[in-house]
Amino acid sequence: MDFNQSGLRSSVCSLIGVSLAVAAGAWVVVVTSNGASGALVAIAGGSLVIVALATVFAIHRSLSRKLERRVLSLRVSDERFRGILDNANAAIYMKDADSRYLLVNREFERIRGLGARDLIGRREDEIGLSVTARQIRASDLAVIDSATAMSFEQEMITQDGLRTFLSLKFPVATADGVVTAIAGISTDLTGQKTVLSQHESRDTHAVERSRGDDQPPG
Fold this sequence. Notes:
The chain is α+β, with helices and mostly antiparallel strands. It has two domains: 5-69, no CATH class; 81-198, Beta-Lactamase. It is built from six helices and seven strands. A five-stranded antiparallel sheet has the order 4-3-7-6-5, with helices on both faces. A two-stranded antiparallel ribbon has the order 1-2. The N and C termini lie far apart (130 Å).
């Protein structure tokens, strides 16, 4: 195929615009990204060599640097998020709509005596007591059905024995309002409830003693 010099330049410009032209022998090589596919196109013939590799490599370097900065930014954000989760003194978790765990923090692992690898992707009925699992699933469904945040008080057998937790659960929805997951924060109330029970017991004894003192002798 023969190309004259002006026709070649016109064809080349229509393909890749102005890139880099070098006088050479009987071969012409045109390299372009060819639209969205990114494929390289080569045309042979004529008397000039059009080298588009410089442009391609420059674009590649620019995109690579942007990608590296984005990955670094995401890694830093993820590390900060994980740092917040793992230093919280409450159990924090996320589940999908079928109540399979998607994320747990370090306190959740400690309370349950299981690592994340033993929890992620599993439902409560696969890792806990069936009675507890049914109660937890019922509260999950209540949040999903109502699409609103709700709180629940629940007793659970843990590594530390029987404990009472106050759990705040809230829906995670798409832009269309479809609930695809739920997240929760569970705080151990056992200590507070024990103190409150002791105060109530002392108050009850005090009232009983005062009633006894009011009784006439004999």
